[in-house]
Amino acid sequence: MTGVNREGEVWVFAEQHQGKLEDTPLELMGKARQLANILGVETAAVLLGSNVGQLAKKLIQYGADKVYVADNQLLENFQTNSYAKTMCQLIEKYEPQIVMYGATVTGRDLAPRIASEIKAGLTADCTDLQIGDHTESGSGILHKNLLFQVRPAFGGNIIATIINYDRWPQMATVREGVMPMPSPDVSRQGKIIKEQVQLSAADLPLTILEEHKREKKVDLKAARVIVAGGAGVGSKDNFKLIWNLANVLGAAPAASRAAVDLGFIDHDHQVGQTGTTVRPSLYVAVGISGAIQHQAGMSESQKIIAINNDPDAPIFQIAHYKVLGDLNEIVPRMIKALKEKTIKEEVAAVK
Amino acid sequence: MDYHCVVLIKQVPDTKRITGKAMNDDGTVNRRALPAIFNPEDLNALELSLQIKEQYSGTVTVITMGLPGAAVILRESLYRGADRTILITDQRCAASDTLATSYILRCAVNKLQYDIVICGRQAIDGDTAQVGPQLAEKLGITQITYLEKLLELENEHITAQRNIGNGQQQVRGKLPVLLTVTSDANEPRVAAAKNMMKYKNARTPAEIEQQIQTENPDADEDTLAGLVERKCGLLKDKGLLIEQWDLDFLDADLGWCGRSGSPTKVHRIQSIVLAAKESKEVEPTEEGIADMIHELIEEKTIA
């Protein structure tokens, strides 16, 4: 644990695997930049690995003022103990006021180990981070400029704002895809600081025997338009309606957890609290009732069309276009309307 | 060799059936008002320990920290085949965040002999997945999180497969270890009828005390204490006493427990209200839908 350090920097753990940066630290750099500007301090990315120095430039382009690079052969593959030990050494040396991690499997494995070792607070799976003031109930003591760590709790039924005002750094893991990806600025300049860390073989208690990675079947985060089906679609066979509409729209096909659990489509397509968080220009929810867990993954969409035969479906509360009726009639009508538009365009082009 | 497993379980509110009234005014959860269940992934943790005991021999000790009512899930563990169950209950544990909780659990686990500590990956009330790794750090042992398959135990070594989000990873390490288990790891068994008969009367001292007070409303304190002690002794002889530990028994430093041991505090709690800024009802007719599509093309939402 370190004390309250108002001059402390805002840090992002720059998760990388095999020399490739994950998306989440880049998303977090945008947030770090914003928080650091409010606090009037610098941002820093902390990059651990072996021969990863070339990634530092990219982190600067995404908003880091400094990049601390711990380049060590023993850090080539992620292991909890070696990474935690390195992070703890750096946190104790520089006393940052905020440290953010992606809520990836790696981040959720690593961050609590660090929090325990330095006896600091940690808030899991945040969906938003802000700076604000807190008055202690009872004593009335005012704490200014704290990190408000906003996260869903109780299965997404409530939103809790968590703070820590006496034992710093303020640490949080942040869900993938909830912070908008900043645009890189290739002209940005920053400092790259090489760090020596003390590690030994004892810090690598596990042997990694093998690792199989697979590419996701669909990149929902990058999709501009998403067509998602729910349990209301009825069957795997009928789910081809979703694929067809997605196809005509040039959209990514997606699904609610219920549809995935029913085997209509693979888990890679799942949107929601236990799936992917998306923020497309248009989200078409077909036969999705809109449980709070699903809304948590898509409510930031710019436009939402909800198609459902239940007038009380919660999805209608957040939809911009509410289409009440039988999806088996409505979806073909949408496809038809879109195709007609395409034909008109083609005719116009020929003329 | 024998493998001694310590399984950590939690009684959680069933978050699928939560209501607004479940929150206290101070933003904490009114656990008494909610249906309480055995945290789902903790059942996978218990199942893994039982499989280890059956395949290699050893013991299964189950610990929970919670209100006296959490004894229910300890009995459920006995029904499934646990050998020993321990309830950590103490009002001074209240308001513990994950750091304070892991400290208290460390004090408890350190009183036991163990080779493998097993937790569910996360509990459905907080979904933090933090207590496992924090406990591993406090015990000073290796952690293997997101375990989806135990591949082998061979003398002092464990080989296991983890789910790393976008794939799988197989790792090997030396015991003792702490595992956090996902719901893919196994299919938890149901309670065995034979064990239910055997353990249905298993009780914690707190439960016995309450029962005796109800049965003897007029008895004075000394008489009650005597009755409780006698009943506890009887149950213990039959192997039906669920152990109950408090922070004094754990020799816990109170500064690291409860609110004072918790760096994170609640600033505020809000119920979720999500609403679209503008919304339109669209007729499900060909015309209505064509108009909607036209509008979206006009404003360039779709190309």
Textual characterization of the structure:
The complex is a heterodimer of chains A (351) and B (303). Chain A has 351 residues and is of the alpha/beta class. Chain A has 2 domains: 194 residues, HUPs (Rossmann fold, 3-Layer(aba) Sandwich), CATH 3.40.50; 126 residues, Rossmann fold (3-Layer(aba) Sandwich). Chain A is 27% helix and 28% strand. Chain A is built from 8 helices and 18 strands. In chain A, the strands form 4 sheets. Chain A has a 7-stranded parallel β-sheet with strand order 7-11-6-1-4-5-12, with helices on both faces. A 5-stranded parallel β-sheet of chain A has the order 15-14-16-17-18. Chain A has a 3-stranded antiparallel β-sheet with strand order 8-9-10. In chain A, helix 5 links the parallel strand 14 and strand 15. Chain A is globular. The model of chain A has no long low-confidence stretch (mean pLDDT 93). With 303 residues, chain B is of the alpha/beta class. Chain B has a single domain, classed as Rossmann fold (3-Layer(aba) Sandwich), CATH 3.40.50. Chain B contains 8 helices and 13 strands. A 9-stranded mixed β-sheet of chain B has the order 9-8-7-10-6-1-4-5-11, sandwiched between helices. A two-stranded antiparallel ribbon of chain B has the order 2-3. In chain B, helix 2 packs across helix 5 and helix 3 packs across helix 4. The interface between A and B is large, with 89 and 81 residues.
